[in-house]
């Protein structure tokens, strides 16, 4: 019944009751006889409508709906045993395109770009709102026409077995492999089914404070402890700090290791609703930080033999587990690279003793004081995340912090080279590219997302730390058409590593040139690739400032007194201490290179490497000339500490930016020794923006769509702008040049407040964009989902 009809009916009832009252004035006499009925009178006019009646009782809650304009349906969310209602859970969501709404689009990317065109042309239909307005809510919001559903969340079973593996903690990188992608000569990107396939998802860490002897955990760590208590794994009262003793911590840490790493699951789409769900009958697998997962380190000798969780020695070069898994990369041959980023908090970082947390030189560190070879500590630490009193819980420092290649679908303990009947199969860590705070891996491919014929394999990676660099790996041998998967993978066992030196970059800002100019596509900055090796004949970027303009990189790295840092003894040590090696030769520091993506179909018409610089906010290790900022050499030749200059602090960058890097030879990047760099987009605060609806800060994960469109998620927009993080499309259409909307970021998806938008990945047909909702409620209130 319409609201108008309801009001009319209610009014009629009120009118009738108002004519049936009886007056009471004095005593009533006996009733008289009934009189003869009179004739019917003429019908009266309808009375005025009465007011609305009182609301009826609430009906029962209906089933979960698909959501409207991206809002989650009202259905209840199931939770694992021991997980309380209201506990925020990291989740993977699917943003789905369900209709063109008059745009003639055939997929999500086309739909968003059509709306962008309408905004630019001023033809957006009224009352449609686009882009998505900024806000901070505890929900997922999307632009009209796109709908979100939750695919899987933390601690969900990935099979139908109650005792089986469960989905891990804070989700990050996602890779999608459509069913059937491997049939024929194709790469997994944008091939195969768009309605079913396999997904790889990274699990980075658990939020909150871990339990300690005498202290109960906080945040997600407490949620996880409650879960372990409910399953009988823990027997102590997890909310009472006095019950957290050594035995409880040992049990907790063993289970903690299973919450990080990655998940390999098959997902399918409901053709009637468009919703995605996990196929729990499939051969879904977990890869984690325990010794149930094993990987071989290639291209580098480790400092010792690792052990499994029982204390038994592993094969030479094989290490237990993978952890701190941030972003990654999908290879053209069907594997996944996962970046082991913040490993320093787990088993320690050998570079942690050489530099302070504020990038200051530590002259008392072994080998750091000039005059002696570097002597980093690679031994297993006695404390750290996941380390307990059980000595079998810790591992050597140089076994983690790599770009790790997972051979998805293969058993978790199948390390690279283990099984002679499976040549080229298994998991490995790319030691030949070195140790760093790796965020991701990007591969040079052609317009069909395949390797370049007759050329070496080229991989780019970002060292995601304040002052980190961009590195390039070039395989020693070229790829040729027809190579098997095993032959292709073997190419990564050997190669050279280069660091990107952004010559002319302003050390005080990290995103402008010396003098203050912004590097643009028309007037870019110029950089060069510096080979990091004891045999490198490249000139050091800081040689002139140190009075030796002809100093080669190889000679500088070996020198025991060059730039206040001791000498490197071999290339293995260089690869294990990449950041220190780059500091020694004066490679320009960068503003946290979080993600890099190679775009073979860039709107500019030339392949381009995109990099998201999230922010800096700390002092730099080097000065503008590439010298250690807190060291100076006295007349006696001894290096001593000195005060920093004001220009050695990059606290000015709190919003981040996206840059483009164009190789001197984009068609053959492996041979390029120089490149041009320029700013594509700059983060901003809503308070200072001329168009707050387009403002965003701290770009993080990037994704390139099938047609070369650039998309990115943010991490920290909530803190900077008090607006939830989200996913944005970066408009770069050549036809829009000169328009105020050129290179503007259009918000298409908004996260629950205080949740980072990570891992965006398209389905093969680009009708769905999968996104990770990471760490909801980490610092602020949330009950997502």
Automatic annotation (TrEMBL):
Pfam families: PhoX. InterPro entries: PhoX. Residues 30-83, 381-404 are annotated as: Disordered. Residues 1-23 form the signal peptide. Keywords: Signal. Residues 47-56, 62-73 have a biased composition (Gly residues). Residues 30-46 have a biased composition (Low complexity). This is DUF839 domain-containing protein. It comes from Myxococcus fulvus.
């Amino acid at each position: 019944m319409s609201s108008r009809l309801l009001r009319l009916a209610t009014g009629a009832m009120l009118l009738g009751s108002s004519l049936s009252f009886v007056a009471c004035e004095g005593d009533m006499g006996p009733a008289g006889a009934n009189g003869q009925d009179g004739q019917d009178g003429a019908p009266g006019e309808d009375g005025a409508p009465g007011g609305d009646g009182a609301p009826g009782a609430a009906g029962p809650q209906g089933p979960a709906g698909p959501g409207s304009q991206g809002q989650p349906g009202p259905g209840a969310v199931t939770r694992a045993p021991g997980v309380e209602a209201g506990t925020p859970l990291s989740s993977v969501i699917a943003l789905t395109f369900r209709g063109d709404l008059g745009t003639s689009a055939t997929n999500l990317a086309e739909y968003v770009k059509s709306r962008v065109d309408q905004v630019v042309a001023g033809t957006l239909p009224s009352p449609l709102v686009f882009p998505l307005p900024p806000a901070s809510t505890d929900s997922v919001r999307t632009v009209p026409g796109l709908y979100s559903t939750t695919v899987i969340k933390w601690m969900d079973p990935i099979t139908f077995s109650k005792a089986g593996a469960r989905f891990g903690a804070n989700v990050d990188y996602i890779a999608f492999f459509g069913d059937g992608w491997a049939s024929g000569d194709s790469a997994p990107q944008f091939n195969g089914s768009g309605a079913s396939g396999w997904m790889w998802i990274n699990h980075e860490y658990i939020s909150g404070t871990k339990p300690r002897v005498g202290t109960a955990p906080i945040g997600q760590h407490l949620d996880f402890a409650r879960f372990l208590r409910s399953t009988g794994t823990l027997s102590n009262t997890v909310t009472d700090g006095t019950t957290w003793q050594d035995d409880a911590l040992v049990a907790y840490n063993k289970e903690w290791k299973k919450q990080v790493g990655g998940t390999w699951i098959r997902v399918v789409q409901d053709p009637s609703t468009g919703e995605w769900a996990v196929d729990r009958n499939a051969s879904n697998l977990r890869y984690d930080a325990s010794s149930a997962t094993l990987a071989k380190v290639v291209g580098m000798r480790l400092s010792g033999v690792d052990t499994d969780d029982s204390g038994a020695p592993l094969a030479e070069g094989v290490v237990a587990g993978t952890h701190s898994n941030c972003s990654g990369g999908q290879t053209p041959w069907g594997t996944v690279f996962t970046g082991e980023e913040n490993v320093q908090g787990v088993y320690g970082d050998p570079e942690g003793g050489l530099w302070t947390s504020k990038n200051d030189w530590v002259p008392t560190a072994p080998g750091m004081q000039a005059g002696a070879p570097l002597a980093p500590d690679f031994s297993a630490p006695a404390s750290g995340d996941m380390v307990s009193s059980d000595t079998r819980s810790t591992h050597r420092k140089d076994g983690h912090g790599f770009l790790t290649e997972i051979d998805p679908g293969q058993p978790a303990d199948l390390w690279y080279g283990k099984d002679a009947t499976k040549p080229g199969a298994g998991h490995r860590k790319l030691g030949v590219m070195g140790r760093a705070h790796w965020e991701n891996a990007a591969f040079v491919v052609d317009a069909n997302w395949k390797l370049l014929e007759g050329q070496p394999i080229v991989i780019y990676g970002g060292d995601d730390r304040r002052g980190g660099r961009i590195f390039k790996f070039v395989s020693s041998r070229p790829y040729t058409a027809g190579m098997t998967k095993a032959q292709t993978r073997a190419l990564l066992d050997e190669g050279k590593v280069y660091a990107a030196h952004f010559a002319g970059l302003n050390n005080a800002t990290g995103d402008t040139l010396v003098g203050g100019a912004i590097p643009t596509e028309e007037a870019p900055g110029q950089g060069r690739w510096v080979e990091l090796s004891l045999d490198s004949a490249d000139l050091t970027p800081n040689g002139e400032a140190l009075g030796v303009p002809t100093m080669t990189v190889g000679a500088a790295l070996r020198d025991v007194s060059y730039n206040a840092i001791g000498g490197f003894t071999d290339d293995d040590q260089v690869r294990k201490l990449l950041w220190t090696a780059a500091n020694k030769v004066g490679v320009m520091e960068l503003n946290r290179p979080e993600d890099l993506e190679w775009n073979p179909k860039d709107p500019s018409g030339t392949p381009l490497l995109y990099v998201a610089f999230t922010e800096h906010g700390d002092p730099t290790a080097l000065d503008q000339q590439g010298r250690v900022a807190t060291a100076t050499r006295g007349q006696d030749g001894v290096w001593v500490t000195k005060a920093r200059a004001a220009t050695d602090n990059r606290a000015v960058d709190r919003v981040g930016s996206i840059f483009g890097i164009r190789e001197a030879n984009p068609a053959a990047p492996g041979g390029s020794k120089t490149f041009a760099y320029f700013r594509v987009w700059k983060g901003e605060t809503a308070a200072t923006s001329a168009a707050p609806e387009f403002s965003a800060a701290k770009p993080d994960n990037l994704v390139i769509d099938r047609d070369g469109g650039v998309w990115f998620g943010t991490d920290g927009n909530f803190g900077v702008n008090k607006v939830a993080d989200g996913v944005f499309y970066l408009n770069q259409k050549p036809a829009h040049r000169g328009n105020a909307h050129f290179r503007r970021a259009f918000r298409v998806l908004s996260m629950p407040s205080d949740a980072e938008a990570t891992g965006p990945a398209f389905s093969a047909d680009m009708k769905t964009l999968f996104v990770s909702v990471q760490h909801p409620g980490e610092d602020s209130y949330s009950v997502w989902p």
